[in-house]
Design brief:
25% of the residues lie in helices and 23% in strands. The chain has helices spanning 15-26, 51-54, 101-109, 117-127, 155-166, 198-208, 257-264, 270-275, 316-327, 415-432, 454-464, 516-533; strands at residues 2-11, 31-34, 61-65, 78-82, 128-130, 145-147, 182-185, 190-191, 194-195, 212-214, 217-225, 228-236, 239-251, 267-268, 282-283, 289-291, 295-296, 298-303, 341-345, 356-361, 378-385, 392-395, 406-408, 441-446, 466-467, 499-501.
Length: 534
C-alpha cells in the first residue's frame, strides 16, 4: 500500500478545495488534494455553454437522486454534483450571487462568531476580480476569479426587466452591493468569454506551486488514531492507498459526500453507524441532517415566430456563427450563464427583506428542465423560496463506499415554503404576462392557463419542481451547545482532533442566493482559520 505524508490532506478537488489548496500552498504548507473525478481538461469545461454537455455527464458529475417524497410528487429528484477538478464550479451555471447581509448576520446570531456580514465581506472581495462595475466598498478588483456581466443584447431580456419594474421591482445594477432586492442582470464567473472555475483560478496555480493533486482518487475513509484524524484511505484507479497529514485532514467533498464520508469513517449518528457495522469514533447526531436546497418549478412561455431567443442560436448554421463569435471574443450564446436576469422580491410587501427569487432565461427549456431547449422561440422563468424551512437528511445506505447515500430534502414539507413559492409563481406569471412582453408572447406553455388556484399551483410545484443544485447544511456549523451542530465556528469537527469541514455542508441556513459565491467565501475563511490554528 502506497503511503505519503503532507501537512494537509484535502478530501475533494471541488469549489472549496481549489481555494484551500491555493491559500495553504501560498503560505508554505504541503498539500495533497484527493479528487474522485478526472482533470477538468475538456473543452466543455472552458466554454460557459458547455454546462449543457457536462451537467449530466457521469464521467464528471455525481448523478444522485432523492428518495421519493409525497411533498414533491413521490418523484426521485435528480442531483448533479461536480466530480472533476473544480467540482461544481467546473460544471455549474456560474452565477455569482452572495446573498443578503441578513443571511450571514443570522449565522452569527446562531452562535457562529466571526461569520456576520461585516466579518465575511472582505473574504468575498478577496476572491473576485470584478470588471470595474459596482462600488469598491463591496467589490473585489484584485482577486483571482473573474466576475462579469455577460453582454447579450436582447429585446426579450429588456422587455422582461421592464415588466418586472412595472410590477414594482426596482432596477438594481449590483445585487452584490449595498442592496440585494430588485431586478437586474446576473453576474457570472466568466472571464473573456470563458468559464472561471476554482480549478482554473486557484487549484492549477496551487499545483504549479507544488500542491499534489490526485485525480481518480476516491476517498473511502478518514484515518484516525484514537480521536485524531491522521490521514485518508483511498482508491486510486482501483489501487488501495493511504496518505497522512501532519497538521490535519480537511473534508471538502460537498453536501452529499461530506456527511457520507464522515459516517463511513465512524463520525455521525451512532445508531445509523452501528446498523451498518461501522465502529463509532465519535457520535455526532447532526452529521447528514439539516439537508436543504432551493426547490424550483419553472414556467415556460412560447414567443411569437421570428422573436429572437436563445433557441434560434443553438443549432445548425446559427450555432456555427455563435462559435465563430466566441472564438473572436465577441458576445455569443457560448459565453452566457444559463440564467441572465434575476428578480428578488417579497411575498408580502410588509416584509423587511426579500424571500423569493425569480430566475429568467430568454430561451425555453422543455417543461422548464435545464439542458433540453425547445426548437421554437421561448423564455423560461424559475421560482424558488430564498430561505426554505423544510429539512431532510443524507445517510449512508451501506458500509460500502461505492454505494450512493440516501437523500431526502423534504421539499415543501413546511407550510411557509408552500406559501412563499406559490406567491413567487404568481408573480412570475404576472411579469411574464405584463404589457412590455405582450407583443412578444404567443402563449404560456407550462404550466398553462388551467393552473389558477393555490391548490393547482401547489400541485404543479410538487409535480414539476426540481433542485437548483444549491445543496447545503449536512455538517452544520454551530456551538457545542447545539446538539445538531457538526463543526464549530472555526470549522473544526466537534469531538475529534485534526479534522475540519470546509464546504457548503457547513452552512447552518442556506443563503438567499446561489451557493457558489458563499462556498468560495467559506473556503477563504476556512483557509485563514486553519492557518491560524495549525
Amino acid at each position: 500500500m502506497s503511503e505519503e505524508t503532507f501537512d494537509h490532506v484535502i478530501v475533494g478537488g471541488g469549489t472549496a478545495a481549489g481555494i484551500l489548496a491555493w491559500r495553504l500552498t501560498e503560505a508554505g504548507r504541503s498539500v495533497c488534494v484527493l479528487e474522485a473525478g478526472p482533470p477538468d481538461s475538456s473543452f466543455y469545461h472552458r466554454v460557459p455553454a458547455g454546462f449543457i454537455k457536462t451537467l449530466f455527464d457521469e464521467r464528471v458529475t455525481w448523478q444522485l437522486a432523492s428518495q421519493p417524497n409525497p411533498n414533491s410528487g413521490d418523484r426521485p429528484i435528480q442531483y448533479t454534483q461536480g466530480k472533476v477538478l473544480g467540482g461544481s464550479s467546473s460544471v455549474n451555471g456560474m452565477v455569482y450571487n452572495r446573498g443578503q447581509r441578513a443571511d450571514f448576520d443570522h449565522w452569527a446570531q446562531l452562535g457562529n462568531r466571526g461569520w456576520g456580514y461585516d466579518d465575511i465581506l472582505p473574504l468575498f472581495r478577496r476572491t473576485e476580480r470584478r470588471d470595474g462595475q459596482g462600488e469598491d466598498a463591496y467589490r473585489g478588483r484584485d482577486g483571482r476569479l473573474d466576475v462579469t456581466t455577460s453582454p447579450w443584447p436582447s429585446e426579450v431580456v429588456d422587455a422582461f426587466m421592464a415588466s418586472a419594474v412595472e410590477h414594482g421591482h426596482a432596477f438594481n445594477a449590483d445585487y452584490n452591493g449595498a442592496r440585494h432586492d430588485g431586478v437586474g442582470l446576473y453576474q457570472s464567473a466568466i472571464g473573456h468569454g470563458r468559464r472561471a472555475s476554482t480549478a482554473t483560478a486557484f487549484l492549477h496555480p496551487a499545483q504549479r506551486k507544488g500542491a499534489a493533486v490526485r485525480t481518480g482518487a476516491l476517498v473511502t475513509a478518514i484515518l484516525f488514531e484514537s480521536n485524531r484524524a491522521t490521514g485518508a484511505a483511498y482508491l486510486h484507479h482501483g489501487t488501495r492507498r493511504q496518505v497522512h497529514a501532519r497538521r490535519g485532514v480537511i473534508v471538502a467533498a460537498g453536501t452529499t459526500n461530506t456527511p457520507k464520508l464522515l459516517q463511513l469513517s465512524g463520525v455521525g449518528p451512532a445508531q445509523l453507524l452501528r446498523r451498518h457495522g461501522i465502529d463509532v469514533v465519535h457520535a455526532l447526531p447532526g452529521v447528514g441532517e439539516n439537508f436543504h436546497d432551493h426547490y424550483s418549478p419553472r414556467m415556460v412561455v412560447r414567443l411569437r415566430a421570428g422573436i429572437d431567443s436563445l433557441n434560434a442560436h443553438v443549432r445548425g448554421l446559427p450555432l456555427v456563427g455563435q462559435v465563430a463569435r466566441w472564438l473572436l471574443g465577441r458576445p455569443s450564446v457560448l459565453a452566457l450563464s444559463p440564467a441572465l436576469v434575476h428578480v428578488f422580491g417579497r411575498s408580502d410587501p410588509a416584509f423587511d427583506i426579500t424571500d423569493y427569487s425569480l430566475v429568467f432565461t430568454p430561451g425555453s427549456y422543455k417543461q422548464g428542465f435545464i439542458g433540453r431547449l425547445d426548437d421554437f422561440p421561448g423564455m423560461t422563468c424559475g421560482a424558488w423560496q430564498m430561505r426554505p424551512e423544510s429539512r431532510g437528511y443524507v445517510r449512508i445506505a451501506s458500509s460500502d463506499p461505492m454505494t450512493a447515500p440516501l437523500l431526502d430534502p423534504n421539499y415543501l414539507g413546511d407550510e411557509k415554503d408552500r406559501i412563499v413559492l406559490i406567491a413567487a409563481l404568481r408573480e412570475a406569471r404576472a411579469i411574464l404576462s405584463g404589457a412590455p412582453l405582450a407583443p412578444l408572447v404567443e402563449s404560456e406553455l407550462f404550466p398553462g392557463d388551467q393552473v389558477q388556484t393555490d391548490d393547482e399551483w401547489l400541485a404543479f410545484a410538487r409535480q414539476y419542481g426540481n433542485s437548483s443544485y444549491h445543496l447545503v447544511g449536512t455538517a452544520k456549523m454551530g456551538p457545542q451547545s447545539d446538539p445538531m451542530a457538526v463543526v464549530d465556528d472555526r470549522l473544526r469537527v466537534h469531538g475529534v482532533q485534526g479534522l475540519h469541514v470546509v464546504d457548503a455542508s457547513i452552512m447552518p441556513v442556506i443563503p438567499s442566493a446561489n451557493t457558489y459565491a458563499a462556498t468560495m467565501m467559506i473556503a477563504e475563511k476556512g483557509a485563514d482559520l486553519i492557518l491560524a490554528d495549525s
